[in-house]
Amino acid sequence: MQHSNRALEFSVDDDTDRVVVRLKDGATGETIRQIPSEETLAIARYIADVQQGLLLSQKA
């Protein structure tokens, strides 16, 4: 069996407060896979912005 030089990185996205897991190449630091993806986080940010806008317009 080959030894893989990979690392897991856990963080929290500041805008969505979601946990983000990245599988990185240990030698280069390049992200191999991210869960949730950047696209998913972008959608979550957009939805949060729209909901915030709706909340503000309903209070006015």
Could you explain the architecture of this structure?
By secondary structure, the protein is an alpha+beta fold. The protein has one domain (6-59). 37% of the residues lie in helices and 32% in strands. The protein contains one helix and three strands, in the order E-E-E-H. It has one helix spanning 38-59; strands at 6-12, 19-25, 31-35. A three-stranded antiparallel β-sheet has the order 1-2-3, with no helix packed on it. The longest helix is centred in the C-terminal third of the chain and has 22 residues, at 38-59.
Question: What is the gist of this entry?
Answer:
The chain has 60 residues and is an alpha+beta fold.
What brief labels describe this structure?
3-stranded antiparallel sheet, 60 residues
Helix-strand layout with pairing:
Elements lengths: L5 E7 L6 E7 L5 E5 L2 H22 L1
Antiparallel strand pairs: 1-2, 2-3
Taken from the alpha-carbon principal axes, the silhouette is rod-shaped
Rg estimate, integer Å = 17 Å
Stretches with pLDDT under 50, minimum 5 residues: none
Question: Helices and strands: which structural class?
Answer: alpha+beta
Multimer state = single chain
Number of helices: 1
- The mean pLDDT is 88
* Fraction of residues in H or I helices: 25-40%
Task: Characterize the largest beta sheet: strand count, sense, and whether it forms a barrel.
Answer: 3 strands, antiparallel
Number of strands: 3
Series of H and E elements: EEEH
Trace the largest sheet across and list its strands: 1-2-3
Rounded to the nearest angstrom, the distance between the terminal CA atoms is 64 Å
Overall number of structural domains: 1
Strand content: 25-35%
